[in-house]
Amino acid sequence: MQNSLRQGKLRLQKWYTATAERDKKKMVRELMQIVLARKPKMCSFLEWRDLKIVYKRYASLYFCCAIEEQDNELITLEVIHRFVELLDKYFGSVCELDIIFNFEKAYFILDEFLMGGEIQDTSKKSVLKAIEQADLLQEEDESPRSVLEEMGLA
Amino acid sequence: MPAVSKGDGMRGLAVFISDIRNCKSKEAEVKRINKELANIRSKFKGDKALDGYSKKKYVCKLLFIFLLGHDIDFGHMEAVNLLSSNKYTEKQIGYLFISVLVNSNSDLIRLINNGIKNDLASRNPTFMNLALHCIAFASEIPRILVAGDTMDSVKQSAALCLLRLNRTSPDLVPMGEWTARVVHLLNDQHLGVVTAATSLITTLAQKSPDDFKTSISLAVARLSRIVTSASIDLQDYTYYFVAAPWLSVKLLRLLQCYPPPEDAALRSRLTECLETILNKAQEPPKSKKVQHSNAKNAVLFEAISLIIHHDSEPTLLVRACNQLGQFLQHRETNLRYLALESMCTLASSEFSHEAVKTHIETVINALKTERDVSVRQRAVDLLYAMCDRSNAKQIVAEMLSYLETADYSIREEIVLKVAILAEKYAVDYTWYVDTILNLIRIAGDYVSEEVWYRVIQIVINRDDVQGYAAKTVFEALQAPACHENLVKVGGYILGEFGNLIAGDSRSSPLVQFNLLHSKFHLCSVPTRALLLSAYIKFINLFPEVKATIQEVLRSDSQLRNADVELQQRAVEYLRLSCIASTDILATVLEEMPPFPERESSILAKLKRKKGPGNLPDIDDARRNVNGNTEHSEKTETTNKVTLVRTASAYLLNLNSTPTAGASLLVDVFSDSSTLASVEVSDENFPRFVCKNNGVIFENQLLQIGLKSEYRQNLGRMYVFYGNKTSTQFLSFSSSVTCNDTLKNHILSTSSVDPIIEGGAQVQQILNIECVSDFTDAPVLNVQFRYGGTLQNIAVKLPVMLNKFFQPTEMTSQDFFQRWKQLGAPQQEVQKIFKAKHPMDTEVTKAKILGFGVALLDRVDPNPENFVGAGVIHSKNTQVGCLLRLEPNTQAQMYRLTLRTSRDSVSQRLCDLLSEQF
């Protein structure tokens, strides 16, 4: 499970274990409360239910992962950082708005990087190459459309 | 790099998002969303067939609305349609929607599966990847994974996809034939593939370690290449000057699935790796960036985990401990937190316990100065773990002083920990009494019943501390405001032992009574009831205050008290004091008999607190057979009503030995015959002969897991009840039945919450004592309501004689000497049987060790044979036991011989063990 959120608004969430919708909402709410209440110098790990929470703040965004008991906290922190780097490289100094307007892209990047909750590739180049290729495919099959058509008037 | 605007083209979506962001209020936002939902709905329903592009756009909008926290109940069909589109972006959005929004129970799954199948079959690698991402179809994947012509990125996805499948439904993809080739992915040239494959192999190895044993040497070799060769260029896999940190962590993690390698060369190569990692921690950082140190330390911590897991190299353990000691003072909060956490596990290793203890001052300092409560919590845990007789006083004192300022959320846990340490390491029980009274003074509200019951039990059982206890509580009660728990302890102890300090005029009987009575009116009903019992005991101890106390009992506020319990006590005690002769009084109100020595119930409570279960409610505890709670409650009850009404019953209780109490429990068990009709499940029972943990029972609703630990003649079993459904289980209850001949007593069972939430797990603890040797096993009966119907389940609990083994190492000479001593025909039991499983030496060794005996190397002249020795501990006796297992690989047969001093033990052990091979 990985979420990023900001002052109480969820921007992106991905669950790697099957969870009921109702529980998801409850967990997200609970986590936001806990994480947002923490002060800057505090440590980035905390125990929550039977999981460990690893979180990090980048400007107005909190990135937050829930990992299992035996997982490595520090490397998870760097998973977050690598994801941020990828976003940054792709969008060119990423900001919250990029993630809001291009949430599907952010998802694609996350999916290229993590799969089923495990790291797929740690190389920045490989991940970005995969996404670039996807973008190329996209351009090929996207024929330009007029604004009118876009708005459903044509 | 691609700019944001590139190729997007979904302006409608962007406009919609802007609209939402421009909404001034929540209401406006909801209104805008509803409008959009209506629009999309009409588009989807409309007569005009939508083109792929519009579908994609609308599905995207739905996704965005979902992210805002609204429920989406349509559009799934359109998303599935997108899957079969030929355009990449449309397919991609379709997959995204499905992976975010579709639950596994949806009936759309079949349609989705179809789409995925098509994509998997296609020759287009991108489509294949997309499909793998969405995760489903099975038997094809291992082929894709190991096929020579598969692109690296597809291999990576396939590995992780397989992992995912294996976690959800392990039977779906039999790995059998692929195993060797999957393991060889560790040698792949592409580090991304290795990383993904390592995750897969780790998961598979956790499930079936034997099949993936070959991965050990490959993992060590790979790790060694990454860690020790300085010049290697890993290009993009070097992360802030750290070579492949993710892969290193994963490899170290994989190695934690196994014991230290047996092959000496491999072992020394691994040790070299670990040493190098430890050395690198001392080198100056190559970058000031936090990412550099995080990645480096992530590898270091994982290496330390492996060292702790192996627990075999004293030098490495001590080095790890020193390294963590440095981190304890690091300026990074994260590192301090992790160091405290890892040290906790190091403290329990015999090699490093002493080394951990040297850091006590630093840890205490952390407790005092850390600003983050989660770090302080870790420090408390570590102090608890490193405590032993030598430093108990210091640690308990520090915890007590921390308690005064501790966060409310962790106070109760600290109270329990202090109480346990104080009892466990008390050399002198005056210190113990002082500590507990201090606990009550500082954090009375957090002192649970178990804690103050326990102090009373100990004072009653140890006559050397009774006078001191009476004096101390008397002094403590002088404080103008004291906690009600102190009044309870004070009332009880003075009622029993007030006479020991009555000689001093400053604590004469009347002074004691007045002191107690001054607290009376401020107390709750249960405490007042306890005080009334103390008063009647005073009448017996000190005839000179009889009149004063009778006066108090006679007052309207007692005799006509609105509370029935109080009123009854007042009336009965008053009457008793009037009519009974001094002799009868002295008999009825005699000092409480010692409590049977049992393990602390506080410890059980602490463990329960750590688990997901809730606090026990009193009713449950009463119904349960928890020896301590019941006994302490009984003391209260007996010295209130029972003894007055039926003094003879009390006398009987006085004469009865503690074991009589236990057999009473057995009787209570056998009464619950209503459950007899349920068939007892024992299919998993044999699997627990050589191991202590695992799943003992599982059906569609419930999973019962066990974790047990045994020491000498005592055992503790943690039973985990997992609700597999999404609905609550109601009126959940469980009990243990033993048949009459079973002398193996279940000492206590902890209470379980009557409600188990859907998907939740609760834990129950059984304390077990082996009284003498036995054959039968207790049965666990579980009852609960699920969807209106009552479910009854009975499971045979794997409590077997061999669990109480302590391994014994001995030389060849000793062994044969004893073997000869046990030469009488009835002492030996032998069985020859056919092998049911492949005859693997390592597996056999593991099984014999798991059985509980020590495996004696080079004792038998024939190296093929296995020889073991151990002692069975029961409360009454110890039975030495020697065993010998002779495999005959040609005939696929075994001969098992057991010699013990008791024929019944030999027979039972032979029966148990012979079923395992």
TrEMBL record, chain A:
<keyword id="KW-0472">Membrane</keyword>
<dbReference type="InterPro" id="IPR011012">
    <property type="entry name" value="Longin-like_dom_sf"/>
</dbReference>
<dbReference type="InterPro" id="IPR044733">
    <property type="entry name" value="AP1_sigma"/>
</dbReference>
<dbReference type="InterPro" id="IPR016635">
    <property type="entry name" value="AP_complex_ssu"/>
</dbReference>
<protein>
    <recommendedName>
        <fullName>AP complex subunit sigma</fullName>
    </recommendedName>
</protein>
<comment type="subunit">
    <text>Adaptor protein complex 1 (AP-1) is a heterotetramer composed of two large adaptins (gamma-type subunit AP1G1 and beta-type subunit AP1B1), a medium adaptin (mu-type subunit AP1M1 or AP1M2) and a small adaptin (sigma-type subunit AP1S1 or AP1S2 or AP1S3).</text>
</comment>
<dbReference type="GO" id="GO:0005905">
    <property type="term" value="C:clathrin-coated pit"/>
</dbReference>
<dbReference type="InterPro" id="IPR022775">
    <property type="entry name" value="AP_mu_sigma_su"/>
</dbReference>
<dbReference type="InterPro" id="IPR000804">
    <property type="entry name" value="Clathrin_sm-chain_CS"/>
</dbReference>
<keyword id="KW-0813">Transport</keyword>
<keyword id="KW-0968">Cytoplasmic vesicle</keyword>
<keyword id="KW-0333">Golgi apparatus</keyword>
<comment type="similarity">
    <text>Belongs to the adaptor complexes small subunit family.</text>
</comment>
<dbReference type="GO" id="GO:0035615">
    <property type="term" value="F:clathrin adaptor activity"/>
</dbReference>
<dbReference type="GO" id="GO:0006886">
    <property type="term" value="P:intracellular protein transport"/>
</dbReference>
<keyword id="KW-0653">Protein transport</keyword>
<keyword id="KW-0168">Coated pit</keyword>
<dbReference type="GO" id="GO:0030121">
    <property type="term" value="C:AP-1 adaptor complex"/>
</dbReference>
<dbReference type="Pfam" id="PF01217">
    <property type="entry name" value="Clat_adaptor_s"/>
</dbReference>
<feature type="domain" description="AP complex mu/sigma subunit">
    <location>
        <begin position="6"/>
        <end position="137"/>
    </location>
</feature>
UniProtKB/TrEMBL annotation, chain B:
<dbReference type="GO" id="GO:0030122">
    <property type="term" value="C:AP-2 adaptor complex"/>
</dbReference>
<dbReference type="InterPro" id="IPR013041">
    <property type="entry name" value="Clathrin_app_Ig-like_sf"/>
</dbReference>
<keyword id="KW-0653">Protein transport</keyword>
<dbReference type="Pfam" id="PF02296">
    <property type="entry name" value="Alpha_adaptin_C"/>
</dbReference>
<keyword id="KW-0254">Endocytosis</keyword>
<feature type="binding site">
    <location>
        <begin position="11"/>
        <end position="12"/>
    </location>
    <ligand>
        <name>a 1,2-diacyl-sn-glycero-3-phospho-(1D-myo-inositol-3,4,5-trisphosphate)</name>
    </ligand>
</feature>
<dbReference type="InterPro" id="IPR016024">
    <property type="entry name" value="ARM-type_fold"/>
</dbReference>
<keyword id="KW-0472">Membrane</keyword>
<dbReference type="InterPro" id="IPR003164">
    <property type="entry name" value="Clathrin_a-adaptin_app_sub_C"/>
</dbReference>
<keyword id="KW-0168">Coated pit</keyword>
<protein>
    <recommendedName>
        <fullName>AP-2 complex subunit alpha</fullName>
    </recommendedName>
</protein>
<dbReference type="Pfam" id="PF02883">
    <property type="entry name" value="Alpha_adaptinC2"/>
</dbReference>
<dbReference type="GO" id="GO:0072583">
    <property type="term" value="P:clathrin-dependent endocytosis"/>
</dbReference>
<comment type="function">
    <text>Component of the adaptor protein complex 2 (AP-2). Adaptor protein complexes function in protein transport via transport vesicles in different membrane traffic pathways. Adaptor protein complexes are vesicle coat components and appear to be involved in cargo selection and vesicle formation. AP-2 is involved in clathrin-dependent endocytosis in which cargo proteins are incorporated into vesicles surrounded by clathrin (clathrin-coated vesicles, CCVs) which are destined for fusion with the early endosome.</text>
</comment>
<dbReference type="InterPro" id="IPR017104">
    <property type="entry name" value="AP2_complex_asu"/>
</dbReference>
<comment type="subunit">
    <text>Adaptor protein complex 2 (AP-2) is a heterotetramer composed of two large adaptins (alpha-type subunit AP2A1 or AP2A2 and beta-type subunit AP2B1), a medium adaptin (mu-type subunit AP2M1) and a small adaptin (sigma-type subunit AP2S1).</text>
</comment>
<feature type="binding site">
    <location>
        <begin position="57"/>
        <end position="61"/>
    </location>
    <ligand>
        <name>a 1,2-diacyl-sn-glycero-3-phospho-(1D-myo-inositol-3,4,5-trisphosphate)</name>
    </ligand>
</feature>
<feature type="binding site">
    <location>
        <position position="43"/>
    </location>
    <ligand>
        <name>a 1,2-diacyl-sn-glycero-3-phospho-(1D-myo-inositol-3,4,5-trisphosphate)</name>
    </ligand>
</feature>
<dbReference type="InterPro" id="IPR050840">
    <property type="entry name" value="Adaptor_Complx_Large_Subunit"/>
</dbReference>
<keyword id="KW-0813">Transport</keyword>
<keyword id="KW-1003">Cell membrane</keyword>
<dbReference type="InterPro" id="IPR008152">
    <property type="entry name" value="Clathrin_a/b/g-adaptin_app_Ig"/>
</dbReference>
